[in-house]
Specification:
By secondary structure, this protein is of the alpha/beta class. The protein is built from 18 helices and ten strands.
């Protein structure tokens, strides 16, 4: 699913491919006619591509009978963009490199170039303008003045809008980000394992004892380390593994295999209701903002509801983030009943035609029984208002807390049944082994990981990529 209701995949090998449709939309209004420029500046593209349109404030399709200009008059960046779109695989980083070539600051030239890219992809003109408008508002709000400051955010938005996040080019970019984020954990874990493999010529009892210590030091935990060691020992015996590199590959495979995939959510009617829980200080509010941002860029209408009514500052902060992401915001103010907020937020979403509701809750200590009871009440109220709600319950955990995250997971799951976990601040800790511990102890899917403070830094979790980045 993407922001655009349809795009043309020029890189597809299927010449008869129909535009990809992600949702039903009203047909775009026909563009208003504007006088043709006095001197043509662009050339017609290679056969099969849409006509090239000169940079101007509002790009419009050219009439079929408009005279073609000589290829040498075509701006080089346009030719390179069109050529890149015809590649065997979509490479968003290359498209963006050509589109932004020579552009250093935001302005009309940047917006015209984005219009050209969207037109080449045959995205609906009104949706292209909406994308650009939202991005311009965000830039002004953030105060960015150089392309270098926001290029990665633009690429992230385009990946979501064009439904390219799972393509190889974007996966490679994410893997690099993940590898950088796991540097501290890799120092703690992988280098010690390498030293251990160098010091031992065979996989005997002393080796396994030292490996267990290494795992525990990386916050995998005693019980989880034991489970992982049992798997490794069994495979070493069965496959008669003797070489260090074969052991590393086996370790990568075993790590990747322990992470369950998030379940697909079926919402028969009404908006998807997502309940977000977690203790104070884990980054819950900003995580909700990042989730709302992703959903917006994927073409969904989003409502963010302020269920943390204990602190006026929490409501204000969430409102600011909702505005920045372009999501609608629902609040009843400080001191309101959180369950009432949940109930009325769903009602507002039903009336407003929203696709998804992210419901914030008060950051609470998992040891406070009365506050956990309140979460149960919120869940019951949601189910009464909309059968099946909440459709997902997301627990936000701080990776830097290490083993304490396990007890939080246990108690929140007992209260409201956690469906998925989001692990924040993974880039700032040497305790990344907690990811392994959560998977082995609770068998819960980790849907997203936080690798920084920017919107683009909340990324889908891949167990395979995590294992490759950790054990290289």
């Amino acid at each position: 699913m993407g922001f655009f209701s349809k795009v043309k995949k020029w890189w597809s090998k299927d010449d008869d491919q129909q535009p990809t449709t992600t949702q039903e939309v009203e047909p775009s209004a026909p563009p208003t006619e504007e006088p043709a420029p006095s001197e043509p500046t662009d050339a017609a593209p290679p056969a099969g591509l849409p006509p090239i349109v000169p940079d101007q404030e509002q790009i419009q399709p050219q009439p079929e009978d408009q005279p073609q200009v000589q290829p040498q008059d075509q701006p080089e960046w346009q030719a390179q963009v069109l050529q890149a779109l015809r590649g065997a695989e979509p490479k968003l980083s290359v498209w963006l490199e050509h589109t932004l070539a020579g552009v250093e600051t935001p302005g009309n030239e940047l917006w015209d170039r984005l219009r050209f890219l969207f037109q080449a992809l045959q995205a609906p003109a009104d949706e292209a303008e909406e994308f650009i408008s939202k991005f311009r508002i965000w830039l002004e709000d953030m105060g960015y003045e150089q392309v270098a400051e926001f290029r990665s955010e633009l690429q992230y938005r385009l990946a979501l809008a064009l439904d390219l996040e799972d393509e190889e080019d974007e996966r490679d970019r994410l893997f690099l980000k993940l590898s950088e984020g796991l540097n501290k954990t890799r120092e703690q874990l992988t280098k010690r394992i390498d030293a251990l493999l160098s010091a031992h010529r065979k996989f005997d009892d002393p080796f396994w004892e030292e490996l267990e210590e290494v795992l525990i030091m990386a916050d995998v935990g005693h019980q989880s380390a034991g489970k992982l060691l049992d798997r490794l020992k069994a495979r070493v015996r069965k496959e008669k593994i003797e070489e260090s590199e074969a052991f590393r590959e086996m370790l990568r495979q075993e790590l990747a295999a322990i992470f369950p995939e998030p379940k697909s959510v079926a919402v028969p009617q009404g908006p998807e209701i997502v309940l977000v829980v977690g203790v104070n200080g884990v980054g819950k509010t900003t995580t909700i903002a990042k989730l709302a941002h992703r959903a917006q860029m994927q073409g969904r209408k989003v409502l963010v509801a302020a269920g943390d009514t204990f602190r006026a500052a929490a409501i204000e902060q969430l409102g600011i983030w909702a505005k920045r992401t372009g999501a609608d915001f629902f609040t009843k103010g400080e001191g309101a009943d959180p369950a009432a907020v949940a109930y009325e937020a769903v009602d507002a979403a039903l009336k407003g035609g929203h696709d998804v509701v992210f419901l914030d809750t008060a950051g609470r200590l998992h040891t406070k029984v009365d506050l956990m009871d309140e979460l149960r009440k919120i869940k019951r109220v949601l189910g009464k208002k909309l059968p099946g709600a909440p459709h997902r319950c997301l627990l936000v955990l701080d990776a830097t807390t290490g083993q304490n995250a396990l007890s939080q997971t246990k108690l929140f799951n007992e209260a409201v049944t956690v469906d998925e976990i989001i692990l924040t601040k993974l880039d700032g800790t040497s305790k990344g082994g907690i990811v392994v511990a959560i998977a082995l102890e609770h068998n819960m899917p980790i849907s997203f990981i936080g690798l920084g403070e920017k919107m683009e830094d909340l990324r889908p979790f891949s167990g395979e990529d995590f294992a490759k980045a950790l054990v290289n």
